[in-house]
Amino acid sequence: MVATKKATTKQAERKPVVIVDDVHVIYKVYASGKRVTRGQGKNGIFSKTSNLREVHAVKGVSFTVYEGESIGIIGSNGSGKSTLLRAISGLTPIDGGSVYAIARPTLLGVGGALLPNISGERNILLGGMAMGESRKDMENAVDEIAKFAGLEEFIDLPMRTYSSGMAARLKFAIAAHRDHDILIVDEALSVGDKQFQNRSEARMRQLRENAGTVFLVSHAMESILETCNRVIWLEKGLIRMDGDPKKVVGAYTQYMDEISE
Ligand SMILES: Nc1ncnc2c1ncn2[C@@H]1O[C@H](COP(=O)(O)OP(=O)(O)OP(=O)(O)O)[C@@H](O)[C@H]1O
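Predict the joint structure of the above. Result:
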C-alpha cells in the first residue's frame, strides 16, 4: 500500500533533468572549406566575408527530459542530431536559446579530443579530470582503462603513434569507465574492431542501465527501440515528431521509404 502510494507520488512529481529551450546552432563556414571561429568573420584575419556561408543546423528546438527517460534521436543525414547533442553536452556553442541540466551531460562517442603529443596515460588523467574527476581517482583508474582499451603495452607512447581505431578505443574507455547521470551516446557502438565492439556494447548496456538519463543517436532502429522509451525525430534542424518509440520510428521509416522511392 505504502509502496503504491510512493510510486504514484513519484509519477506525479516527474523531475526534469534536461531542458532544451529554443536552441539554435549556426555554423559559419568559408566556401573554401575553412572553418571560421567566432570573431574571425568581421575585421579578423579572414576579413573577406563574401565566401562566408552559414549553416543553420538546429533551428529552435525545445523539449524537456524527465528522470528515467531514455531518449532516442533519429532523423536523416544532416538533420542536426549530432549538433543538437553536442550542444546539450556543451561541446558546441549555441547561437540562441538555452540548455539547462541537473548534471553535466557526458558525450560518449568518437568525437572527444585527446592530445596527440602526450602519452595515452596522461590523456587518461587529463580526459578524466576534464570530465570532473579527481586526479587521484584517475591515477587509480589508469590500469583498468588501458586494459579495457586493450592498450596496456602502448599506454606510455604518445597518442600520435596510435591508429585511429586505437585512439577511438581509448576515448571510449575513458568516457565509459564510470557511470554518468546524463549519458549521451552518439553511435559509439561502431567503435573499434569486432572484439572491442562486443566489449564496448556490453559496457554500454551496463552504463545505460545505471545512468539516470540516456540520449542515443543512431541510424539503427533496433537499438533505438531496444534502448529508448521516448524518441525525438529531427528533420532539417526541427523536431518533426516526439513521443512513443514505436509510433515515431514507424512514421520515420515510412517517410524514409517514401522519399527513397
Ligand atoms: N563543423 C561543422 N561545420 C559546418 N557545418 C557543419 C558542421 N557539422 C555539421 N555541419 C552541418 O550541420 C548540419 C547538421 O549536421 P549534423 O552532423 O548535426 O547532422 P546529423 O543529423 O548528425 O547527420 P548524420 O546522420 O549524417 O550523422 C549539416 O548540414 C552539416 O553539414
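Confidence is low (pLDDT under 50) at residues 1-9.
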